[in-house]
Specification:
Structural class: mainly alpha
Largest sheet: none
Number of helices: 5
Shape: flat
Distance between the termini: 41 Å
Oligomer: single chain
Number of strands: 0
Order of helices and strands: HHHHH
């Protein structure tokens, strides 16, 4: 048995592990429909991922799909847009939380807003350094 696509195999094993873990937890604490709605897709996705990683034909299809130029461009654009949106959400949430905490006198809201401000600052710094790196190396 040879593994042809290690990333799909690792994902499949992880999904199977999570499904089995939730199945055991459901068996010990009482199984209801919420557990079934979670365990079923996890086991199906995990099993499909493991099977696809062990088949040379399916692994080749997955690798071609993964390295397709259009798919890589879409992935790059979607990650860039998600990063931009998360920066805006951090900025808006920090301003709202700090203002709300100041007006109501709740220091906890101010601290949460400061935490989001730190996350926003870290994202700006990493954005700057990655821009400098790729500007020099491309």
């Amino acid at each position: 048995m040879k593994i042809y696509h290690k990333k799909n195999f690792a994902f499949g094993l992880f999904a199977l592990f999570l499904g089995a873990l939730n199945l055991v937890r459901g068996a010990l604490q009482g199984f209801d429909w919420h557990d079934g709605a979670l365990v079923g897709p996890l086991l199906l996705l995990g099993g499909a991922g493991v099977l696809r990683s062990l088949s040379p034909k399916w692994s080749r299809e997955d690798k071609v799909e993964e390295w397709d130029e259009r798919n890589r461009l879409v992935k790059l654009k979607s990650r860039s847009q998600a990063y931009y949106i998360s920066q805006l959400v951090f900025l808006a949430a920090e301003l709202v939380l700090i203002a709300w905490g100041k007006t109501t006198g709740q220091e906890t809201l101010i601290y949460v807003g400061l935490g989001l401000m730190a996350a926003f600052f870290i994202s700006l710094v990493t954005d700057f350094f990655t821009w400098v790196y790729y500007d020099e190396h491309t």
